[in-house]
Amino acid sequence: MNWDDTTDTDATAERLVGASADGEDQAVEAALRPKDLGEFIGQEKVREQLDLVLRAARARGATADHVLLSGAPGLGKTTLSMIIAAEMEAPIRITSGPAIQHAGDLAAILSSLQEGEVLFLDEIHRMSRPAEEMLYMAMEDFRVDVIVGKGPGATAIPLELPPFTLVGATTRAGLLPPPLRDRFGFTAHMEFYGPTELERVIHRSAGLLDVGIDTAGAAEIAGRSRGTPRIANRLLRRVRDYAQVKADGLITQEIAAAALAVYEVDARGLDRLDRGVLEALLKLFGGGPVGLSTLAVAVGEERETVEEVAEPFLVREGLLARTPRGRVATPAAWAHLGLTPPRSQGSGNGQQDLFGT
């Protein structure tokens, strides 16, 4: 069960198929997280490479190299950071980029680390620039310069740090400056999960939650989980509730499909917001092209919500395309909603906002 903690917008936290973790998710995840690499499902290449890094460090009696994990929310970055600490038999300190807005915030954390401790820095790309520059020296030389005083009389006092392992996690690796990326000894990109891997995740979670589920039921949930273990576990819990109230507690394909219909998650993993965006694009604008602002107004959502919450999955599924002229629906979008595209797609109302992006 592999997931991490990332919150981009309030809207994502409210969605059943949102990849961010709220309080309930975090509590359940703590119980479901694997404790070592052998239990971790999926991400085979990353697991193999990371296992070599950790085993070599243990053989040398040294701290592990700094690790950078990138990928979408919910794929296992936080879980892997905890596994790294467990494999190295070291304590772990958890913080996030948004929580470090001043160099002094980072200096306070670094100066309190124990030798060999793992520092997990989530959303590392959102750290302030002064703290980021301090981190360069800490990662490379295990030293920071603490500035005492202000103005011409300010002095820098060097502070030696014990060797530690930094595990950075980011959902937007492109925002990391090259000097920071280059200081990580091992970098890994977390991929979305396939249906078979998600079925294994669901079966494992069902066992830990003492939920009865058959193969077809697990496959039904996996197919709607958007390639993300966190979403798979969240859907499993909601289907479990339905099965306990409406059936005998066993999750079958029929029960899973009926439960997710209640929660408005369709067979492809789209929810109300996703379908609302597609329906507006197809029915109101003839499939586009249409500008993002116009599309957002049509679905009654903020521009940022449509762009950051709904669009990434629709684009990844090949249902929507971003073009210089605006958003355009693909033939797969027409087929998914059971609609017939016009002879000349984009000749409708979408022409009124061709160049809005």
From TrEMBL:
GO terms for molecular function: helicase activity. Its main location: cytoplasm. It is found in: Cytoplasm. DNA binds at R303, R322, R327. Signal peptide: none annotated. Residues 63-196 form the AAA+ ATPase domain. Residues 267-357 are annotated as: Head domain (RuvB-H). Residues 194-264 are annotated as: Small ATPAse domain (RuvB-S). SUPFAM superfamilies: P-loop containing nucleoside triphosphate hydrolases (SSF52540), Winged helix' DNA-binding domain (SSF46785). Belongs to the RuvB family. This is Holliday junction branch migration complex subunit RuvB. It comes from Streptomyces ambofaciens. The lineage of its organism: Bacteria, Bacillati, Actinomycetota, Actinomycetes, Kitasatosporales.
